[in-house]
Specification:
Elements lengths: L2 H26 L8 H13 L2 E2 H8 L3 H14 L2 E5 L7 E5 L1 H22 L4 H16 L6
Antiparallel strand pairs: 1-3, 2-3
Helix pairs in contact: 1-5, 2-4, 2-5, 3-4
Length: about 150
């Protein structure tokens, strides 16, 4: 198969995988579907990486800083985050999870794990291991925000 066909096939498979993941996750949790994709991505970024500057949140979301501010405002409105001054540089404000935000992150993480288990169900253990190894190889050489 020519490289362009492989690229197109891989791109299509990734898009379908993303759609399947979103659908399965939404089926696992009624609350999951109630929040925007950006809100859930931001919750995930902060939950995984800890308190971050607005610029780092924007990078994790793949948007400009001005677009990240409304996301942080919504998360604050959900009671999931608060803005705090950095201890290292008092001029800098960070966005960090609240206790409620930590609970929401853990609930969404459980939803993601259940969704992934459902998606991997057709694969045997060897196929799962091979898939993970290949995906890790692809991502190892790339800087992915978040």
């Amino acid at each position: 198969m020519p490289t362009t066909d492989l690229t197109e096939s891989f791109s299509l498979a990734l898009r379908r995988l993303g759609t399947l993941y979103a659908r399965v996750a939404a089926e696992q949790s009624a609350e999951h579907g109630a929040y925007s994709k950006q809100d859930l991505l931001a919750l995930d970024a902060i939950g995984l990486d800890g308190p971050m500057r607005m610029g780092d949140l924007a990078d994790a979301l793949g948007v400009g800083q001005s677009a990240a501010t409304p996301v942080a405002d919504r998360l604050e409105g959900h009671g999931w985050v608060r803005r705090v001054r950095s201890q290292a540089d008092r001029r800098v404000w960070l966005v960090e999870l609240t206790d409620e935000g930590r609970r929401a992150f853990e609930a969404e993480d459980a939803v993601r794990k259940t969704a992934v288990d459902a998606m991997l169900a057709p694969l045997d253990d060897g196929e799962r291991a091979a898939l993970v190894a290949l995906l890790e190889k692809i991502t190892r050489g790339h800087s992915v925000p978040g």
